[in-house]
Structure formats: structure tokens, C-alpha cells
Amino acid sequence: MTQGYELYGAEASYFTGKVRAYLRYKRIPFSEVLATREVYKDIILPRVGWPVIPVVATPDGETWQDSSEIIDNFEARFAEAPVYPQGPRQKLAALIIEAWADEWLKLPAMHYRWTKNRDWIVLEFGKLSRPDLDEAGQREAGEQTARPFAGALPALGVTPETGPAVETSYEGLLAELDAHFAAHDFLFGSRPSIGDFGLYGPLYAHQYRDPVSGALMKRIAPNVARWVERMSKPPLPKGGEFLANDEIPATLMPVLTRIMREYLPVLLATAEAFNAHVAALPEADRAKPLARGIGMHDFTLEGVTGKRVIFPFDLWMLQRALDFLRGLDEGAREKAVHMLKEAGGERLAGFPAFPRLARRNFQLVLE
After folding, report:
1. 359 pairs with which residues across the strands?
2. Is residue 256 part of a domain?
3. Alpha-carbon distance 38 to 201, whole Å?
4. Is residue 1 very low, low, confident or very high in pLDDT (cuts 50, 70, 90)?
5. Number of domains in the chain
6. Do residues 217 and 227 lie in contact, with contact meaning Cβ atoms separated by under 8 Å?
7. Residue 28: strand, helix, or coil
8. Which end of the chain is more exposed for a tag (fewer CB within 10 A), N or C?
9. Domain shared by 92 and 197, yes or no
């Protein structure tokens, strides 16, 4: 039993950043424990079964893993200042942004980290996993830790051929966000939403902290850098408001349009492949954890076509938004669908059915 909430993670971790920023905004007392090699061996692997961060240990002995589930569990216990907007358009947009930021923004996050900041992050990893070694030893340890992360780029679709398109897309996104954050403190007003926390993961842990990426952000998108700093040290913990009348700021529409243009086709292709994959599963395998990847498919970004692994987890994240949309009454759903159509996302409103997904024992399974 812990004495309080313990967050096992690291500053360089995409999803630890998301959870940490949430805890700071909500002013939930917690202690952060650096995920060293010993912590993985002695705590994370026995509790979760595989090496992953962030992990939360609760005072009553529970273990939580996955940033979205961690935040939802905290929201159930700490209801003040909810991070989910109540309006149908704002909440749907926030859920879509969270899913996109969690899964699609891995492309620029990983591209910039491993092609622009490699030497720096290798040493950072070495310091994390082996704080007991000198710098040479830490670099060697960091190279070992880095290998699977750097090796994951082709699976995400990040290659020398697609790299320039990833950079064009990311810098376009920074310009859109910079214009938005010039007018608004957060995505939907003066209170951060679940969408802000999702977006903060890659934009802080990879793009703001990594030195080359951080310099780029501060140079071409200073308002985004200031938003990162507000998210890191919230000026109004448990405070602020979402915009009245369920308003979606006009400055946010280019971001939503980008999501529909870049990511919605990937989601549609993923659903098609997942349906075929599940249909072919032997009955005896349907209760087992799903594979993290189920083959490859083509995707197009900024006019460049590449290949990437098909990840069923994207559909679990999307399912959160689709469940919300389908649960709305007719009037609220009409408003939400109108917003999707304005962003070019009408296909999301009629997204094809796919087998429901759940998480059991920290793994993705068929519900």
C-alpha cells in the first residue's frame, strides 16, 4: 500500500507528461517516481506485466495504466473542475483531439526526437535508466534503451521518404495552434480540457523539451511555447472556464480540419483492416489480448504516400468519441455533426461499425 498517489514516469515520456499536467491542474497530491531500471524491475513489471509508463499506484493498492484511463479514474474521484466540457461540440472536439494527439502526433514527436535530437535523448535515457553510471556508461545504457524507440519509426510510417512531409505537416500545425493560442489560453477557453492534456504529451515531452525541437517551437510558434508553459504551471489550478454556448473557436477549426484530412483516412482504413482481422480470428483466440499491430497499410501525408503498421489501439481511442456522439440526443447530435461537417469530418459521423474494444489486465481485448 502506498501512502498517496504515486506516478511512475519520466520527463522525456509522452504520456507521463499528459498525466502530470492533469494532476497539477487538478491539484491532486501525488509524488513522482523516476522510472529507473530498478523501478521497472521491482514495481512496474510485477504490477503491469510489461514495461510501460506512466503507471499510477493508488493509496488503496490499485494500479492504473494508460493515460486516458488514469485521467478518467481521477476524474471519478476528484470531480471539481472537470476537464471534459459539457457541451456536445466542445466535448466531442476535445475527445477527437485527445485521440489524434495521443496516436497521430507520435509521427512528428518521434521524427524530430530521433532525427534532430538523437544524441541528446540517448544521454537523457542513460541518465534515467542508470543514474549510477558516469556519462560514458550512461551513453552506452542510453543506446540500449533507445534502440526499440528509434527502431519504431518505420512502424509509425516515419522514414527518410516521409520525413519531409512530417515536418511540413507539423510546422503547419504549429502555425495553426500559434494563431489559436494568441487568442485563447487553452483549446476551449480559460480552462484546459482533455484535449489540451492529450496535446501537451507530445508538444511538451518531445517537442518543447528536446533542444532542437524546442528552439524551433519557440522561434516559429511562441504562443504554443507559452501554452506549454501554462500547461506545465497552470495559472488557475482547478479554475478557468470553457467558452460559453458550447463555442468552438474559429481559430481551432483549421486544426480540426487537419485532423480530418490527415488522420480520419487512417482511422477508416484501420477499421476496415480490423474488421477483416477479427473475422479471421479463430474462436479460441477471441478472448486473448489483441496484437499491437495487424499488418501494414498505406497512408498519405502532404501528398507523400508511405506505409505504416495498423494499430487497433487507435480504434479504442476513437471509440471514446464515437460512444459520446452516439449517446447524444437528437438536437445535441445535430450540432455536433454540423461541427464535424464544417471540419470535413462527415465520415466520422457515420463511421463504420467495428468490434467493440476494451482493456483488461492492461491489454487491449475484444469486449
Report:
1. 364
2. no
3. 25
4. very low
5. 3
6. no
7. coil
8. N
9. yes
Q: Helix, strand, coil % (nearest 5) of the chain?
A: 60, 10, 30
> Using the 8-state DSSP alphabet, how is residue 345 labeled?
-
- What rounded mean pLDDT belongs to the chain? 96
Last residue of a domain, one of 47, 77, 107: 77
DSSP 3-state assignment of 360? strand
> What is the 8-class DSSP label of residue 189?
B
Residues in the chain: 367
* Burial status of residue 210 (CB atoms within 10 A of its CB: 0-12, 13-18, 19 or more): buried
Alpha-helix residue ranges (DSSP H) falling in 81-220: 88-103, 106-116, 118-129, 135-150, 153-156, 163-183, 194-202, 211-220
Query: Of all residues in the chain, what percent carry a pLDDT higher than 70?
Result: 99
Query: Is residue 340 within 8 Å of residue 333, measured between CB atoms?
Result: no
d(CA 321, CA 91): 9
Please check whether residues 245 and 268 belong to one and the same domain. no
Mean pLDDT over 109-118 rounds to 96
- Domain hosting 115: range is 88-249
**C-alpha grid cell for residue 255?**
486544426
Q: Got the DSSP string for 47-82?
A: HHSS--S-EEE-TTS-EEESHHHHHHHHHHH--SS-
The SS3 assignment for 222 reads: helix
Give SS3 for 299.
Answer: strand
Q: Which residue type is seen at 114?
A: W
Relative orientation angle of helices 163-183 and 222-232, to the nearest 10 degrees: 70
Q: What average pLDDT does the segment 259-271 reach?
A: 98
Q: How far does CA 136 lie from the centroid of its chain?
A: 33
- The single-letter code of the amino acid at 277 is H
323 burial via Cβ count (<10 Å: 0-12, 13-18, 19+): exposed
Torsional class of 161: left (φ above 0), alpha (ψ -120 to 50), beta (otherwise): alpha
Task: Calculate the alpha carbon distances from 260 to 257, 267, 268, 323 in Å.
Answer: 5, 10, 11, 18
The CA distance from 250 to 240, in Å, is 20
Strand partners, 133: none
- How wide is the angle at C-alpha 362 spanned by C-alphas 358 and 367, nearest 5°? 15
